[in-house]
Amino acid sequence: MSGLAIEVSVAPEYCAGESSDSESRFVFSYTVTVHNQSPHSVQLMARYWKITQGNGDSQEVRGKGVVGQQPLIGPGQRFRYTSRAILQTPVGVMEGAYTLLNTATQRAFDVPIAPFRLAVARQLH
């Protein structure tokens, strides 16, 4: 346990204009907010995502930082970014973790990201 209070929230959104039912291409954007509620600065070093399609297929994505950055987040600060996921089904779930570095101790720790749903909002007529 890191002892640091880091809150991660995610707001997903379906991108209808970039998606195609006939091509089984469902594009979602998701905006992530990382809120550092601790008294120390942290740096977001790496990400891990597990993306599960509605048909049960899943893939894992790992990489340095997010959106090409390894942001330093000061005490009380928030870092927000938007990224995308392309699914082959109209429903899916993403979950994961960020690896953060406590800049005071130079120790890395993981912050889990709770599962969130990606789903096409169908209009009822």
Short summary of the structure?
With 125 residues, the protein is mainly beta. The protein has no helices and eight strands.
The helix-strand sequence is: EEEEEEEE
Q: Show unreliable segments.
A: none
Counted beta strands: 8
Structure class: mainly beta
Which topology does CATH recognise?
Immunoglobulin-like
Q: For the record, what CATH class applies?
A: Mainly Beta
Give the number of domains: 1
How is the topology of this model organized?
Elements: E1 6-14, E2 26-36, E3 42-53, E4 58-64, E5 72-73, E6 78-87, E7 91-102, E8 107-119
Antiparallel strand pairs: 1-2, 2-6, 3-4, 3-5, 3-7, 7-8
Please characterize this protein's 3D structure:
It is a single chain. The protein starts with 5 loop residues before the first strand and ends in a 6-residue tail after the last strand. The chain is built from no helices and eight strands. The chain has about 120 residues and is mainly β. Strands 3, 4, 5, 7 and 8 form a five-stranded antiparallel sheet that branches. Strands 1-2-6 form a three-stranded antiparallel sheet, with no helix packed on it. About 15% of the residues are buried.
